[in-house]
Amino acid sequence: xxxxxxxxxxxxxxxxxxxxxxxxxxxxxxxxxxxxxxxxxxxxxxxxxxxxxxxxxxxxxxxxxxxxxxxxxxxxxxxxxxxxxxxxxxxxxxxxxxxxxxxxxxxxxxxxxxxxxxxxxxxxxxxxxxxxxxxxxxxxxxxxxxxxxxxxxxxxxxxxxxxxxxxxxxxxxxxxxxxxxxxxxxxxxxxxxxxxxxxxxxxxxxxxxxxxxxxxxxxxxxxxxxxxxxxxxxxxxxxxxxxxxxxxxxxxxxxxxxxxxxxxxxxxxxxxxxxxxxxxxxxxxxxxxxxxxxxxxxxxxxxxxxxxxxxxxxxxxxxxxxxxxxxxxxxxxxxxxxxxxxxxxxxxxxxxxxxxxxxxxxxxxxxxxxxxxxxxxxxxxxxxxxxxxxxxxxxxxxxxxxxxxxxxxxxxxxxxxxxxxxxxxxxxxxxxxxxxxxxxxxxxxxxxxxxxxxxxxxxxxxxxxxxxxxxxxx
Length: 474
Fold this sequence. Notes:
By secondary structure, the protein is of the alpha/beta class. The chain has helices at about 5-15, 15-30, 40-60, 80-95, 125-145, 150-165, 200-205, 210-215, 235-245, 265-285, 325-340, 360-365, 390-395, 410-425, 435-440, 445-455, and strands at about 70-75, 100, 115, 120, 170-175, 190-195, 225-230, 250, 310, 320, 350, 375, 405, 430.
Protein backbone atom coordinates (compact mmCIF):
# COMPACT_ATOMS: atom_id res chain seq x y z
CA UNK A 1 0.00 0.00 0.00
CA UNK A 2 1.48 3.32 -1.01
CA UNK A 3 2.04 6.05 1.53
CA UNK A 4 -0.51 8.85 1.53
CA UNK A 5 0.56 12.03 -0.17
CA UNK A 6 1.82 14.72 2.17
CA UNK A 7 -0.35 17.78 2.72
CA UNK A 8 2.31 19.94 1.04
CA UNK A 9 2.39 17.78 -2.09
CA UNK A 10 -1.41 17.75 -2.28
CA UNK A 11 -1.46 21.51 -1.86
CA UNK A 12 1.21 21.92 -4.56
CA UNK A 13 -0.76 19.73 -6.97
CA UNK A 14 -3.77 21.96 -6.45
CA UNK A 15 -1.76 24.99 -7.52
CA UNK A 16 -1.64 25.21 -11.29
CA UNK A 17 1.29 26.31 -13.39
CA UNK A 18 -0.34 29.70 -13.92
CA UNK A 19 -0.83 30.37 -10.22
CA UNK A 20 2.72 29.26 -9.44
CA UNK A 21 4.00 31.50 -12.21
CA UNK A 22 2.10 34.53 -10.89
CA UNK A 23 3.49 33.95 -7.40
CA UNK A 24 7.05 33.78 -8.77
CA UNK A 25 6.54 36.83 -10.96
CA UNK A 26 5.32 38.89 -8.02
CA UNK A 27 8.46 38.01 -6.06
CA UNK A 28 10.73 38.88 -8.99
CA UNK A 29 8.96 42.14 -9.81
CA UNK A 30 9.22 43.26 -6.19
CA UNK A 31 12.89 43.87 -7.06
CA UNK A 32 12.05 46.49 -9.67
CA UNK A 33 13.05 49.86 -8.28
CA UNK A 34 13.48 53.28 -9.87
CA UNK A 35 16.76 53.39 -11.76
CA UNK A 36 19.54 54.95 -9.74
CA UNK A 37 21.51 57.73 -11.44
CA UNK A 38 24.47 56.61 -13.52
CA UNK A 39 27.65 57.64 -11.63
CA UNK A 40 29.24 60.76 -13.08
CA UNK A 41 32.69 59.24 -13.53
CA UNK A 42 33.74 56.04 -15.26
CA UNK A 43 35.66 55.03 -12.15
CA UNK A 44 32.60 55.40 -9.92
CA UNK A 45 30.46 53.44 -12.39
CA UNK A 46 32.96 50.58 -12.53
CA UNK A 47 33.34 50.51 -8.74
CA UNK A 48 29.57 50.23 -8.28
CA UNK A 49 29.36 47.52 -10.95
CA UNK A 50 32.16 45.47 -9.38
CA UNK A 51 30.51 45.68 -5.97
CA UNK A 52 27.24 44.43 -7.42
CA UNK A 53 28.95 41.50 -9.10
CA UNK A 54 30.70 40.61 -5.84
CA UNK A 55 27.32 40.63 -4.08
CA UNK A 56 25.98 38.29 -6.73
CA UNK A 57 28.98 35.99 -6.33
CA UNK A 58 28.26 35.84 -2.60
CA UNK A 59 24.70 34.62 -3.17
CA UNK A 60 25.85 32.20 -5.86
CA UNK A 61 28.31 30.71 -3.35
CA UNK A 62 25.35 30.10 -1.01
CA UNK A 63 23.67 28.28 -3.91
CA UNK A 64 26.72 26.08 -4.41
CA UNK A 65 28.20 28.13 -7.27
CA UNK A 66 25.93 26.76 -10.00
CA UNK A 67 27.88 28.69 -12.64
CA UNK A 68 31.00 26.62 -11.98
CA UNK A 69 29.51 23.45 -13.41
CA UNK A 70 27.98 25.00 -16.51
CA UNK A 71 29.49 24.95 -20.01
CA UNK A 72 28.33 28.37 -21.19
CA UNK A 73 28.17 30.03 -24.59
CA UNK A 74 28.00 33.72 -23.66
CA UNK A 75 26.42 36.06 -26.24
CA UNK A 76 26.44 39.86 -26.37
CA UNK A 77 26.17 42.61 -28.98
CA UNK A 78 24.16 45.70 -29.76
CA UNK A 79 21.74 43.96 -32.10
CA UNK A 80 20.89 40.34 -32.84
CA UNK A 81 22.24 38.83 -29.65
CA UNK A 82 18.93 37.19 -28.75
CA UNK A 83 18.37 35.79 -32.24
CA UNK A 84 21.98 34.59 -32.41
CA UNK A 85 21.65 32.89 -29.02
CA UNK A 86 18.49 31.11 -30.18
CA UNK A 87 20.21 30.00 -33.41
CA UNK A 88 23.21 28.63 -31.50
CA UNK A 89 20.90 26.76 -29.13
CA UNK A 90 18.95 25.29 -32.07
CA UNK A 91 22.10 24.02 -33.79
CA UNK A 92 23.41 22.45 -30.58
CA UNK A 93 20.06 20.87 -29.77
CA UNK A 94 19.85 19.56 -33.32
CA UNK A 95 23.21 17.89 -32.78
CA UNK A 96 21.69 15.82 -29.98
CA UNK A 97 22.74 17.84 -26.94
CA UNK A 98 20.55 18.92 -24.02
CA UNK A 99 20.62 22.70 -24.30
CA UNK A 100 19.62 25.39 -21.85
CA UNK A 101 18.89 28.92 -23.02
CA UNK A 102 18.71 32.08 -20.91
CA UNK A 103 17.70 35.23 -22.79
CA UNK A 104 16.87 38.81 -21.88
CA UNK A 105 14.48 40.58 -21.85
CA UNK A 106 11.22 38.69 -22.15
CA UNK A 107 8.35 39.72 -24.38
CA UNK A 108 5.21 38.63 -22.49
CA UNK A 109 5.97 36.13 -19.74
CA UNK A 110 9.02 35.71 -17.55
CA UNK A 111 9.44 32.02 -18.36
CA UNK A 112 10.48 33.01 -21.90
CA UNK A 113 13.87 33.81 -20.36
CA UNK A 114 14.49 30.19 -19.35
CA UNK A 115 14.28 27.33 -21.84
CA UNK A 116 15.51 23.78 -22.24
CA UNK A 117 15.46 22.28 -25.71
CA UNK A 118 13.01 24.93 -26.86
CA UNK A 119 10.51 24.48 -24.01
CA UNK A 120 9.89 27.29 -21.54
CA UNK A 121 10.45 26.72 -17.84
CA UNK A 122 7.40 25.49 -15.95
CA UNK A 123 5.65 27.93 -13.64
CA UNK A 124 6.38 25.72 -10.62
CA UNK A 125 10.05 25.48 -11.58
CA UNK A 126 10.32 29.26 -11.75
CA UNK A 127 8.63 29.55 -8.35
CA UNK A 128 11.03 27.00 -6.84
CA UNK A 129 14.08 28.71 -8.35
CA UNK A 130 12.98 32.07 -6.96
CA UNK A 131 12.50 30.53 -3.52
CA UNK A 132 15.95 28.94 -3.62
CA UNK A 133 17.59 32.24 -4.54
CA UNK A 134 15.68 34.17 -1.88
CA UNK A 135 16.67 31.65 0.80
CA UNK A 136 20.33 31.77 -0.24
CA UNK A 137 20.24 35.56 -0.33
CA UNK A 138 18.68 35.69 3.15
CA UNK A 139 21.44 33.50 4.62
CA UNK A 140 24.11 35.57 2.92
CA UNK A 141 22.66 38.92 4.00
CA UNK A 142 22.24 37.74 7.59
CA UNK A 143 25.92 36.86 7.66
CA UNK A 144 27.29 39.88 5.77
CA UNK A 145 24.80 42.70 6.30
CA UNK A 146 24.94 43.44 2.57
CA UNK A 147 22.17 45.07 0.55
CA UNK A 148 19.62 43.00 -1.36
CA UNK A 149 20.30 41.89 -4.92
CA UNK A 150 18.87 43.96 -7.74
CA UNK A 151 16.30 42.71 -10.25
CA UNK A 152 18.98 41.84 -12.83
CA UNK A 153 21.16 40.09 -10.26
CA UNK A 154 18.27 37.98 -8.98
CA UNK A 155 17.44 36.96 -12.54
CA UNK A 156 21.04 35.89 -13.15
CA UNK A 157 21.17 33.87 -9.94
CA UNK A 158 17.91 32.05 -10.56
CA UNK A 159 18.79 31.37 -14.22
CA UNK A 160 22.16 29.84 -13.33
CA UNK A 161 20.61 27.84 -10.47
CA UNK A 162 17.83 26.56 -12.73
CA UNK A 163 20.18 25.66 -15.59
CA UNK A 164 22.56 23.82 -13.26
CA UNK A 165 19.74 21.78 -11.71
CA UNK A 166 18.50 20.89 -15.21
CA UNK A 167 21.89 19.30 -15.98
CA UNK A 168 22.16 20.74 -19.46
CA UNK A 169 25.10 19.82 -21.69
CA UNK A 170 25.60 23.45 -22.73
CA UNK A 171 23.88 26.64 -21.59
CA UNK A 172 23.55 29.53 -24.05
CA UNK A 173 23.36 32.73 -21.99
CA UNK A 174 22.49 36.13 -23.41
CA UNK A 175 23.96 39.23 -21.78
CA UNK A 176 21.46 41.76 -20.45
CA UNK A 177 23.38 44.90 -21.42
CA UNK A 178 27.04 45.50 -22.19
CA UNK A 179 29.06 42.57 -20.96
CA UNK A 180 32.07 43.39 -18.79
CA UNK A 181 29.94 44.47 -15.83
CA UNK A 182 26.74 42.63 -16.68
CA UNK A 183 25.62 40.22 -13.93
CA UNK A 184 25.86 37.29 -16.36
CA UNK A 185 29.62 37.85 -16.60
CA UNK A 186 30.12 35.69 -13.51
CA UNK A 187 30.23 32.70 -15.89
CA UNK A 188 33.41 31.14 -17.25
CA UNK A 189 32.38 30.53 -20.87
CA UNK A 190 33.51 27.93 -23.34
CA UNK A 191 32.65 30.44 -26.08
CA UNK A 192 32.16 34.22 -26.14
CA UNK A 193 30.15 35.66 -29.03
CA UNK A 194 29.92 39.38 -29.87
CA UNK A 195 27.44 40.03 -32.65
CA UNK A 196 28.18 43.68 -33.45
CA UNK A 197 28.76 47.10 -31.91
CA UNK A 198 26.38 50.04 -32.21
CA UNK A 199 24.96 52.90 -30.18
CA UNK A 200 22.59 51.64 -27.52
CA UNK A 201 22.55 51.99 -23.72
CA UNK A 202 24.87 54.94 -24.24
CA UNK A 203 23.92 56.41 -20.85
CA UNK A 204 25.67 53.51 -19.09
CA UNK A 205 28.02 52.08 -21.73
CA UNK A 206 28.87 55.05 -23.96
CA UNK A 207 29.10 57.61 -25.16
CA UNK A 208 31.13 56.23 -28.09
CA UNK A 209 31.13 52.94 -29.97
CA UNK A 210 34.68 52.44 -28.70
CA UNK A 211 33.40 52.61 -25.12
CA UNK A 212 30.60 50.18 -25.92
CA UNK A 213 33.03 47.80 -27.64
CA UNK A 214 35.22 47.77 -24.53
CA UNK A 215 32.26 46.82 -22.36
CA UNK A 216 31.14 44.03 -24.68
CA UNK A 217 34.66 42.67 -25.18
CA UNK A 218 34.76 42.01 -21.44
CA UNK A 219 32.95 38.69 -21.87
CA UNK A 220 36.00 37.19 -23.63
CA UNK A 221 37.78 34.93 -21.13
CA UNK A 222 40.97 32.83 -21.17
CA UNK A 223 40.46 29.42 -22.75
CA UNK A 224 37.19 30.35 -24.45
CA UNK A 225 36.40 30.44 -28.15
CA UNK A 226 35.84 34.06 -29.25
CA UNK A 227 33.68 34.95 -32.26
CA UNK A 228 32.47 38.28 -33.62
CA UNK A 229 30.53 39.56 -36.60
CA UNK A 230 31.69 43.15 -36.12
CA UNK A 231 33.16 44.56 -39.31
CA UNK A 232 36.53 46.27 -39.75
CA UNK A 233 37.10 49.38 -37.67
CA UNK A 234 37.94 50.65 -34.23
CA UNK A 235 35.33 48.56 -32.43
CA UNK A 236 36.66 45.31 -33.86
CA UNK A 237 40.21 46.36 -33.03
CA UNK A 238 39.18 46.81 -29.41
CA UNK A 239 37.58 43.36 -29.37
CA UNK A 240 40.71 41.86 -30.95
CA UNK A 241 42.96 43.52 -28.35
CA UNK A 242 40.84 42.06 -25.55
CA UNK A 243 41.10 38.59 -27.08
CA UNK A 244 44.87 38.93 -27.46
CA UNK A 245 45.20 40.15 -23.86
CA UNK A 246 43.62 36.95 -22.52
CA UNK A 247 45.42 34.70 -25.01
CA UNK A 248 42.44 33.87 -27.21
CA UNK A 249 42.26 33.79 -31.01
CA UNK A 250 39.40 35.93 -32.31
CA UNK A 251 37.36 34.33 -35.07
CA UNK A 252 35.97 36.88 -37.52
CA UNK A 253 32.72 36.14 -39.33
CA UNK A 254 32.40 38.20 -42.51
CA UNK A 255 28.98 38.76 -44.08
CA UNK A 256 29.35 39.45 -47.84
CA UNK A 257 27.86 42.67 -49.17
CA UNK A 258 25.52 41.10 -51.71
CA UNK A 259 22.12 41.85 -53.16
CA UNK A 260 20.02 39.09 -51.67
CA UNK A 261 16.85 40.07 -53.51
CA UNK A 262 13.94 38.49 -51.66
CA UNK A 263 16.24 36.29 -49.61
CA UNK A 264 16.48 36.61 -45.84
CA UNK A 265 17.28 40.06 -44.47
CA UNK A 266 20.96 40.76 -43.99
CA UNK A 267 20.74 40.85 -40.19
CA UNK A 268 19.24 37.34 -40.10
CA UNK A 269 21.97 36.04 -42.39
CA UNK A 270 24.54 37.62 -40.08
CA UNK A 271 22.99 36.08 -36.96
CA UNK A 272 22.90 32.62 -38.49
CA UNK A 273 26.42 32.90 -39.88
CA UNK A 274 27.64 33.74 -36.37
CA UNK A 275 25.74 30.79 -34.93
CA UNK A 276 27.18 28.38 -37.50
CA UNK A 277 30.71 29.67 -36.94
CA UNK A 278 30.36 29.33 -33.17
CA UNK A 279 29.03 25.78 -33.32
CA UNK A 280 31.68 24.80 -35.89
CA UNK A 281 34.36 26.07 -33.49
CA UNK A 282 32.78 24.11 -30.64
CA UNK A 283 32.82 21.00 -32.85
CA UNK A 284 36.50 21.56 -33.58
CA UNK A 285 37.16 21.71 -29.85
CA UNK A 286 35.35 18.40 -29.32
CA UNK A 287 32.21 19.78 -27.69
CA UNK A 288 29.91 18.81 -30.57
CA UNK A 289 29.83 15.92 -33.04
CA UNK A 290 30.41 17.68 -36.39
CA UNK A 291 28.53 14.96 -38.22
CA UNK A 292 25.35 15.83 -36.34
CA UNK A 293 25.31 19.56 -37.06
CA UNK A 294 22.31 20.32 -39.28
CA UNK A 295 22.03 23.92 -40.55
CA UNK A 296 18.48 23.09 -41.64
CA UNK A 297 17.25 23.43 -38.05
CA UNK A 298 17.84 27.18 -38.29
CA UNK A 299 14.67 27.51 -40.36
CA UNK A 300 12.68 26.98 -37.17
CA UNK A 301 14.90 29.02 -34.84
CA UNK A 302 13.08 32.20 -33.89
CA UNK A 303 12.18 34.59 -31.12
CA UNK A 304 8.69 36.00 -30.62
CA UNK A 305 8.32 39.63 -31.54
CA UNK A 306 11.17 39.69 -34.04
CA UNK A 307 9.61 40.30 -37.45
CA UNK A 308 6.81 37.97 -36.43
CA UNK A 309 3.56 37.66 -38.36
CA UNK A 310 0.45 37.32 -36.24
CA UNK A 311 -2.29 34.74 -36.99
CA UNK A 312 -4.89 37.21 -38.25
CA UNK A 313 -6.84 34.84 -40.48
CA UNK A 314 -8.61 36.77 -43.24
CA UNK A 315 -7.95 40.14 -41.61
CA UNK A 316 -5.12 42.56 -42.41
CA UNK A 317 -1.66 41.10 -42.02
CA UNK A 318 0.17 42.16 -38.85
CA UNK A 319 3.95 42.15 -38.35
CA UNK A 320 5.40 42.79 -34.88
CA UNK A 321 9.05 43.68 -34.34
CA UNK A 322 10.67 45.08 -31.21
CA UNK A 323 13.15 47.36 -33.01
CA UNK A 324 14.17 50.06 -30.55
CA UNK A 325 17.51 51.49 -31.63
CA UNK A 326 18.75 52.88 -34.97
CA UNK A 327 20.57 49.68 -35.95
CA UNK A 328 17.53 47.53 -35.27
CA UNK A 329 15.21 49.95 -37.03
CA UNK A 330 17.47 49.88 -40.10
CA UNK A 331 17.38 46.06 -40.01
CA UNK A 332 13.60 46.17 -39.68
CA UNK A 333 13.24 48.46 -42.69
CA UNK A 334 15.42 46.09 -44.71
CA UNK A 335 13.25 43.15 -43.66
CA UNK A 336 10.04 45.05 -44.40
CA UNK A 337 11.25 45.92 -47.89
CA UNK A 338 12.19 42.33 -48.70
CA UNK A 339 8.87 41.06 -47.36
CA UNK A 340 6.54 43.75 -48.75
CA UNK A 341 7.88 44.37 -52.25
CA UNK A 342 7.33 40.91 -53.81
CA UNK A 343 3.83 40.81 -52.30
CA UNK A 344 2.90 44.15 -53.80
CA UNK A 345 1.75 45.47 -50.45
CA UNK A 346 1.30 49.21 -49.85
CA UNK A 347 2.94 51.01 -46.91
CA UNK A 348 1.56 49.91 -43.53
CA UNK A 349 -0.31 51.46 -40.67
CA UNK A 350 2.31 51.71 -37.92
CA UNK A 351 1.67 51.31 -34.20
CA UNK A 352 4.77 52.84 -32.58
CA UNK A 353 5.83 53.30 -28.98
CA UNK A 354 9.17 53.84 -27.25
CA UNK A 355 10.62 53.78 -23.75
CA UNK A 356 11.73 57.10 -22.33
CA UNK A 357 15.31 55.82 -22.19
CA UNK A 358 15.35 55.23 -25.91
CA UNK A 359 16.02 57.94 -28.44
CA UNK A 360 12.54 58.37 -29.86
CA UNK A 361 13.72 61.40 -31.80
CA UNK A 362 16.22 59.20 -33.65
CA UNK A 363 13.68 56.44 -34.29
CA UNK A 364 10.79 58.43 -35.71
CA UNK A 365 12.44 59.79 -38.87
CA UNK A 366 13.68 56.32 -39.75
CA UNK A 367 10.26 54.74 -39.23
CA UNK A 368 8.15 57.29 -41.04
CA UNK A 369 9.38 57.45 -44.67
CA UNK A 370 6.85 55.81 -46.97
CA UNK A 371 4.50 54.78 -44.15
CA UNK A 372 0.78 55.27 -44.77
CA UNK A 373 -0.39 56.05 -41.20
CA UNK A 374 0.99 56.07 -37.67
CA UNK A 375 -1.04 55.28 -34.55
CA UNK A 376 1.23 56.07 -31.61
CA UNK A 377 1.06 54.47 -28.18
CA UNK A 378 3.19 54.05 -25.07
CA UNK A 379 4.29 50.69 -23.71
CA UNK A 380 2.53 49.56 -20.53
CA UNK A 381 5.47 48.49 -18.41
CA UNK A 382 7.19 49.32 -15.16
CA UNK A 383 9.58 51.38 -17.24
CA UNK A 384 8.41 54.85 -18.28
CA UNK A 385 7.39 55.31 -21.88
CA UNK A 386 7.75 58.24 -24.21
CA UNK A 387 4.35 60.01 -24.21
CA UNK A 388 2.47 59.11 -27.40
CA UNK A 389 1.84 62.80 -28.02
CA UNK A 390 5.61 63.30 -28.16
CA UNK A 391 5.98 60.61 -30.82
CA UNK A 392 3.09 62.12 -32.78
CA UNK A 393 4.66 65.59 -32.59
CA UNK A 394 8.02 64.21 -33.73
CA UNK A 395 6.39 62.46 -36.70
CA UNK A 396 4.67 65.67 -37.76
CA UNK A 397 7.86 67.69 -37.23
CA UNK A 398 9.73 65.36 -39.57
CA UNK A 399 7.13 65.93 -42.26
CA UNK A 400 5.20 62.69 -42.04
CA UNK A 401 2.56 63.06 -44.77
CA UNK A 402 -0.09 60.69 -43.43
CA UNK A 403 -2.65 60.87 -40.66
CA UNK A 404 -1.18 60.73 -37.15
CA UNK A 405 -3.49 59.42 -34.44
CA UNK A 406 -2.74 59.30 -30.70
CA UNK A 407 -4.13 56.31 -28.78
CA UNK A 408 -2.37 55.75 -25.42
CA UNK A 409 -3.76 52.24 -24.81
CA UNK A 410 -1.84 49.56 -26.79
CA UNK A 411 -4.81 47.22 -27.27
CA UNK A 412 -6.98 50.09 -28.50
CA UNK A 413 -4.17 51.31 -30.74
CA UNK A 414 -3.95 47.90 -32.41
CA UNK A 415 -7.73 47.73 -32.84
CA UNK A 416 -7.66 51.17 -34.48
CA UNK A 417 -4.73 50.20 -36.69
CA UNK A 418 -6.51 47.04 -37.85
CA UNK A 419 -9.62 49.05 -38.71
CA UNK A 420 -7.57 51.61 -40.63
CA UNK A 421 -5.66 48.86 -42.43
CA UNK A 422 -8.90 47.16 -43.47
CA UNK A 423 -10.24 50.45 -44.85
CA UNK A 424 -7.03 51.15 -46.76
CA UNK A 425 -6.48 47.51 -47.81
CA UNK A 426 -3.04 47.49 -46.27
CA UNK A 427 -1.27 45.87 -43.31
CA UNK A 428 -0.07 46.76 -39.80
CA UNK A 429 3.44 47.09 -38.38
CA UNK A 430 3.85 47.29 -34.59
CA UNK A 431 7.29 48.39 -33.41
CA UNK A 432 9.49 50.71 -31.33
CA UNK A 433 9.78 48.71 -28.10
CA UNK A 434 9.84 45.04 -27.10
CA UNK A 435 7.54 45.93 -24.21
CA UNK A 436 5.02 47.44 -26.60
CA UNK A 437 5.23 44.42 -28.91
CA UNK A 438 4.53 42.16 -25.93
CA UNK A 439 1.41 44.18 -25.17
CA UNK A 440 0.22 44.09 -28.79
CA UNK A 441 0.88 40.36 -29.08
CA UNK A 442 -1.58 39.60 -26.27
CA UNK A 443 -4.42 40.17 -28.73
CA UNK A 444 -3.53 36.76 -30.22
CA UNK A 445 -1.61 34.93 -27.47
CA UNK A 446 -2.56 35.37 -23.81
CA UNK A 447 0.06 35.17 -21.09
CA UNK A 448 -1.74 32.27 -19.45
CA UNK A 449 -1.80 30.24 -22.66
CA UNK A 450 1.93 30.75 -23.09
CA UNK A 451 2.76 29.76 -19.50
CA UNK A 452 0.57 26.66 -19.53
CA UNK A 453 1.70 25.52 -23.00
CA UNK A 454 5.32 26.37 -22.12
CA UNK A 455 5.68 27.88 -25.57
CA UNK A 456 5.55 31.42 -27.00
CA UNK A 457 3.37 29.94 -29.74
CA UNK A 458 0.50 28.12 -27.99
CA UNK A 459 -2.38 26.90 -30.10
CA UNK A 460 -5.20 29.39 -29.43
CA UNK A 461 -8.54 27.97 -28.25
CA UNK A 462 -10.21 29.05 -31.50
CA UNK A 463 -9.02 26.56 -34.09
CA UNK A 464 -7.86 27.88 -37.40
CA UNK A 465 -5.74 30.80 -36.23
CA UNK A 466 -2.59 28.74 -36.06
CA UNK A 467 0.55 30.15 -34.51
CA UNK A 468 2.60 33.22 -35.26
CA UNK A 469 5.28 32.91 -37.91
CA UNK A 470 8.29 34.81 -39.12
CA UNK A 471 6.72 35.47 -42.52
CA UNK A 472 3.96 34.05 -44.68
CA UNK A 473 4.46 32.40 -48.07
CA UNK A 474 4.85 34.65 -51.11
